[in-house]
Amino acid sequence: MSLEKSAEGGTGRPAPGRVEDVRRGNLIRILASMAEARTDPDTRPTRADLATRTGLTKASVSSLVAELLDAGLLAESGTTRDGERGRPGVGLELSTSRGVVGMEINVDYIAAGLLDLGGTLRIHRTLESSNRGQSPPSVMALLGGLVRDIAAEASAAGIEILGGGLAVPGLVDSASGTVASAPNLQWRGVGLQLEQLLPSAPFGLALYNEANCAALAELWYGHGLDFRDYLFISGEVGVGGGLVIGSELFAGPRGQAGEVGHVVVEPSGPDCSCGGHGCLEAFAGQEAVFSEAGIAPGAASVRLARLGEQLAAGDAAAVAAVSRAGHYLGIAAASTARLMNLSAVVLGGHFTPMGRWIRPALQRSLAEYAPGLISDARVEISELGQSAALLGAAGSSLRAVLAAPFTLTPAGR
Amino acid sequence: MSLEKSAEGGTGRPAPGRVEDVRRGNLIRILASMAEARTDPDTRPTRADLATRTGLTKASVSSLVAELLDAGLLAESGTTRDGERGRPGVGLELSTSRGVVGMEINVDYIAAGLLDLGGTLRIHRTLESSNRGQSPPSVMALLGGLVRDIAAEASAAGIEILGGGLAVPGLVDSASGTVASAPNLQWRGVGLQLEQLLPSAPFGLALYNEANCAALAELWYGHGLDFRDYLFISGEVGVGGGLVIGSELFAGPRGQAGEVGHVVVEPSGPDCSCGGHGCLEAFAGQEAVFSEAGIAPGAASVRLARLGEQLAAGDAAAVAAVSRAGHYLGIAAASTARLMNLSAVVLGGHFTPMGRWIRPALQRSLAEYAPGLISDARVEISELGQSAALLGAAGSSLRAVLAAPFTLTPAGR
């Protein structure tokens, strides 16, 4: 409609709403350009750089930057050299005095951290906690305490919290903040009172799937920088997955794609928490690996450390258990790559400390079941470790802030 | 850039190129609205109907329709009642005197058909031909003969051919017209001289994957009308697949997604033409089903008919062979649904005549491996039969015509 009007006899003068939309779009462009820029202090962009990068006029950039400085989303950071003309200018950066909170509830721990707008994880706290079968309000109360501690630390450091994201190991409905199903927590249809965690954050809080968050963290801060299309497999109590296609998360029609832990890898295999059997999780989840390796029950972190020692010592049972997990990971990865036309795999979570042993087993399995599909060089181990899900949840919240700066600027008030 | 200029002091007068873009966009809107309309002669849309549906002015619609009539894409079809005001108007339809050709090269036959712009398959010819291991030029020569016959018939019926699509059972690069790999034809890295098939068609010819075409045909003319998200599995010599998400084909980052025939369903299973082993194809492909059912070698159509007779007679080996295929189809479908968040499955190709027996086996398998994920009501058997791939290839070509009408109108000349 608007297109036709404009071409077939409109007034030619943009409506007031349109001008506002354009200004909002330009605020977003400035921030996107800042987010792409290096954080090296010597090469911080000036207003002139931003004009070149965005194609906006210098006058526009000055006005937009003033608005973003005023909103606290950008900060000036001393003079910087303008390489081309030799004149010094004022460098700009995404504000490190504004941040977002990343949170995670997993089966045997909870965690929270503060990411500043520049992308630095400033605070990171983890608390061991056996959450399986615990009531959601009690776990949320525990998480609330952790978040309050972080908010106090942030406040002491002069950092204002704008929003946050919570990652849980299950299928979630982000819009309603509901955990549809998290079998390893034994939660089903649980509505979480997210807003109570950070009631005053202007951008609010969002709920995410843990493996999807870890896959996104890998995309933004890890191997995803090289791989545009890959399957991320995260080992926890369960086995989660995230599908990245064209450098974006593929979430599926109802936001629940990537359940690689429940790909059937052995039709006669053992029962699974999902109600099926023979799933990847039954061979590569923590319990399967630990018990196959003959590691006595106990806290997951203790068992994982013990497994690491046994692997390093060349213990046959430990090596066999990890190789078996790698074999079945390869089968699931081969099937996923065939279905979705992917060409890389990244392993994270508890697979990271097993990397040296699990990677070759996975590569052998890929060569056996899908020869030529995924080269050895495109099988990688995440280096983000246990902070991945939290980083992904915080990073998602950070992107939500940068995509809607007008929430804080006069243009949006 | 253009957004900013328009808001911050542009002339307000759309550039000539912009007017042209708008007119092109409106031509497309008219055709899209026509394609959505019913073909029932009594309810054919009038110019007034199109104005209501598209939100364009009646004057604009009249001018655009005149251009499309002139280009031969629309036709007038007698008076029709305007239901609301009782005044008769001239009904419009997508021209049945323009059409596109759908073609298929499969392992044991070639086929071609003519689809008019209204979506009716006017001509359909199939020729049995053992193409496995044949040289691509010789198969293309055979197909060329079939297409010439169809072009002659079309000409005799006063139908002008605008373009076409060819479906092959393998991974293709549509842009270059190359078959990257079609194991069951034993073709690899084969460039097909598509333009020689229909040198004068203004929209040219495109190359597609056979299972993707069949999945799209199901979307446009079959069960896809009810299912927005589903896995389509096509039984041929191989087993192909197509993933439909949000009523669109999911083609993957390099256009090769949907290879469900090579999902690993039995890690210790037999070798497969893909170089792996234990793939679905080794249990649900034609050779696997026929030999498990004890059906003697011969032409596929003869063997399929024989299998049908044995199933109808309750032959134990035949029923067991088809049940086994259904069991493994269920495993692959369960894994795919978990990965991609799909909630329906449609079986086509050679599974269609086995439908009565294979459907319950697939349903049992889904209930065993992914309980609650795909209800019995969302497992369907395609009714399009052997014409599916050809219909999908032609339908893709038809959509390309409707999306670029300016190729034939003054606006594009």
Task: Describe the secondary structure blueprint for this structure.
The structure is a homodimer of 413-residue chains.
Chain A: H1 2-7, H2 16-36, H3 47-54, H4 58-70, E1 74-81, E2 88-94, E3 98-105, E4 109-116, E5 121-128, H5 136-156, E6 160-168, E7 171-173, E8 178-182, E9 187-191, E10 205-209, H6 210-221, E11 230-235, E12 239-245, E13 248-250, H7 281-284, H8 286-292, H9 300-312, H10 316-340, E14 345-349, H11 355-369, E15 379-381, H12 388-402
Parallel strand pairs in A: 3-6, 6-10, 11-14, 14-15
Antiparallel strand pairs in A: 1-2, 3-4, 4-5, 7-8, 8-9, 11-12, 12-13
Protein model, in words:
- The structure is a homodimer of 413-residue chains.
- With 413 residues, chain A is an alpha/beta fold.
- Chain A has three domains: 24-94, Arc Repressor Mutant, subunit A; 98-213 and 390-412, ATPase, nucleotide binding domain (Nucleotidyltransferase, domain 5, 2-Layer Sandwich); 223-383, 2-Layer Sandwich (Nucleotidyltransferase, domain 5), CATH 3.30.420.
- The first copy, chain A, is built from twelve helices and 15 strands.
- A five-stranded mixed β-sheet of chain A has the order 5-4-3-6-10.
- In chain A, helix 3 packs across helix 4 and helix 6 packs across helix 12.
- Chain A is globular and about 65 Å long.
- Mean pLDDT of chain A is 89; it is low at 1-12.
